[in-house]
Amino acid sequence: MTVRLGLLSLALLLPACATEGGDVPLFGTGSEEELDRAESLAYGELESATESPAVGKGITELRTLKVQVDVTDMAHTKVQQLVSGVPVWGGEAIVHLASDGALVGFTDTLLAQVDVDPTPAFAADEAIDFAVAAWPDGWSKLTADPTADLWALRHDGADHLAWRVSLHQVNYEAGDAMPVLFVDAHDGSVIWSYNNFQTAACSGDTNFYGTVAVDCYTDGTSYYLEDTTDRLGTYSWNNTTSGLYYVSSATAAFASATEVDRNALEAHYVSQKVFDYYTTAHARNGIDGAGGPAYVTSHATNFITSTTSYSSNYVNAFWDGTNGYMTYGDGDGTNSGSLTTLDIGGHEFTHGVTQYEANLTYSGEPGHLNESMSDVFGSMVERAVLGESIDTWSLGEETWTPGFAGDALRYMDDPAADGVSRDYYSSTIGSVDVHYGSGVPNLAFYLLSEGGTHPRGKSTTVVTAIGADDAADIWYLALSSYMTSSTSFSGARTATLSAAAALYGTSSVQYTSVGDAWSAVGVGVAPSCTSTTYSSSFSRSGRTNYHPSSSGTSVTVAGQTASLTGPSSANFNLYLQQKSGRTWSTVASSTASASAESLSYTGTSGTYRTAVTSVTGTGSYTMTWCK
User: How many other C-beta atoms lie within 10 A of the C-beta of residue 374?
Assistant: First the structure.
């Protein structure tokens, strides 16, 4: 749908009672009828809502990019800004509607007063010639036909009509690239460019996971690395660059005598585990959400494709967003071994997911977020298969520099440990390589999952752990429903807070901890509360200790958090209580079956105290209260 605002027929909209926060659910199944309803309501809000970014910025022409109903039964309609029919680069908005049709809010990266002459001085073919002439390798190493499409681009404060020219140079050697160049459509100059080659360099041996079971296809004579149920196919270049080959076996037991066979089998295992993670954890069907995309068609099936053993000694892995498949090198045995690990596979698969969802531009802060999303969900895949450990928070630890034990490519729990990654926000971070700036959101996700403070003391914010499962749910919903191609770090904070609010509410520990996690890495300000840590112990079960005392203390801030750490063999509970007259009321509590508890509360000023109770067990504990 392309709509010029002001001409939208009111007949498209539902009755007013459905848009005023009534209790009749309009969304819940994601049916075509619901999606059409959400889209119509969204355009109504864009045209008339007081806080509409389209109204506020005078934008009258929009096109629908995506409409979806998420797991919280909210509807999200993403729109693309246009000028005289030409899309505006980075000009996007998302309209968020509650299940009853009420407006929840907008995600806004629309651009005000974009002014371009919409008629290009030359055609796409000539724009491609200009771009290739500006590319150092010219035509000589391109591996696919370039493409060009027309955009309105605001760059360095000036508006341009520009041809976006995408080049594809993947020869499985150093210097591989997927450059995107914006050519001024009136004078032919190159305005801006970035490299869309989305890579994760890894290394290691091929037998990381021992003997594994994989789903395969048989024609009665041979067995192939093809899963026809989930439509996942794995193929090998056999250390060439000239064509893909089947990796097959005469029996159900694949031989692993050669590196090529082992790497292909492992990549197939990894692709199934990544697919299973996204299906189980986020109800996602494949990279594009619809069981695809398919690159190879074989045995009457279209397969999501993984390819292995490219060229020789190739130390890299990447998602080919142009053709839609994943590539894993064998490594060179020194810088890396095979790149077919769980976290690398999850990383590359997630680049595809990101492309089909927010489509974060692979440059500057959106590029850092793009890489970080892949690191986050690569780690979550590994955790889902192997269980959580210290290795969960290291990237490529199995494969990186085989001659040096205990190292990794990147460290989410301490990004600066690799010597190059950033772990705290600065205004100049946009100029940093996308792999290194990703350390900031990586650390935010780690602190949100595990809790604690900045590993190098760059902030004093204490983050209460919510666990990796809740953190991943928030990050995924933010990526799929609240982010656009130009989302910045500040925008990511807003997007993840919106996702946390939708999933858990604004008074939840999850919501508070998301804000704290970003604040801990310099993105936004932490809530204004002061932390105090209390230590005590229980000599027998059934006792309660009050902090700072049974009479409590005056609290004037609205938001409070508390976290408790006690013996794993005991069961201690944590309560926040407010005084009312002569009585105390519990306003928040955490009562899990162990002694790691955390709570969050937003309320009014008054007299409060915390209570720690030993349900079973004895021993010492510490409790931190931010008030």
Answer: 28
**3-class secondary structure, 298:** strand
pLDDT above 60: residue 15: no
Give the span between the Cα atoms of 204 and 257, in whole angstroms. Answer: 17
Can you tell me the distance from the alpha carbon of 501 to that of 511, in angstroms, rounded to the nearest whole number? 6
Query: Span 4-30, mean pLDDT?
Result: 50
Tell which CATH architecture fits domain 384-520: Orthogonal Bundle (1.10)
Question: Which among 533, 543, 509 has a CA at the least distance from the CA of 618?
Answer: 543
Find the catalytic residue in 45, 92, 348, 365. 348
Which CATH code is given to the segment(s) 2-108?
3.10.450
For residue 360, CA distances in Å to 158, 195, 486 come to 22, 13, 6
- Asked if CATH classification 3.40.50.720 holds for the domain at 217-356, the reply, yes or no, is no
Q: How many CB atoms lie within 10 A of CB 401?
A: 16
Q: Look at the block and give the residue holding tokens 């970035």.
A: 194
**Peptide bond preceding 179 in cis form (omega within 30 of 0):** no
Q: Is 348 a catalytic residue?
A: yes
The closest of 398, 478, 467 to 70, measured between CA atoms, is 478
Specify the higher pLDDT residue, 558 or 422.
Answer: 422
Local structure of residue 211 (DSSP, 8 states): S
Q: For residue 562, what are its two tokens?
A: 């508390």
- Phi then psi for residue 495, to 5 deg, are -65, -45
DSSP secondary structure letters along 301-368: EEEEEEEE--TTT---EEEETTTTEEEE----SSSBS----HHHHHHHHHHHHHHHTT---SSHHHHH
Q: Which of 612, 611, 620, 594 is nearest to 538 (CA)?
A: 620
Q: How many whole angstroms separate alpha carbon 498 and alpha carbon 540? A: 43
User: For residue 387, what are the contacts with CB-CB under 8 A and spacing of at least 6?
Assistant: none
CATH number of 124-196: 3.10.450.40
Nearest to 163 by CA among 196, 186, 143: 186
430-466: pLDDT as tens digits: 899 999 999 999 999 999 999 999 999 998 888 999 9
Residue 97: closest CA among 107, 87, 85 = 107
Please answer whether residues 282 and 476 qualify as being in contact, where contact means their C-beta atoms are separated by less than 8 angstroms: yes
- Distance, first Cα to last Cα, the chain: 49
Residue 2, judged by CB atoms within 10 A of its CB (0-12, 13-18, 19+), counts as: exposed
**Choice among 347, 435, 454, 547 that is catalytic:** 435
Measured distance CA(474)–CA(512) in Å, rounded: 13
Place of tokens 């602190």: 447
Answer whether residue 22 shows pLDDT above 80.
no
Grouping H, G, I as helix, E, B as strand and the rest as coil, residue 40 is helix
This prediction's pTM: 0.77
Chain centroid offset of residue 531 CA: 30
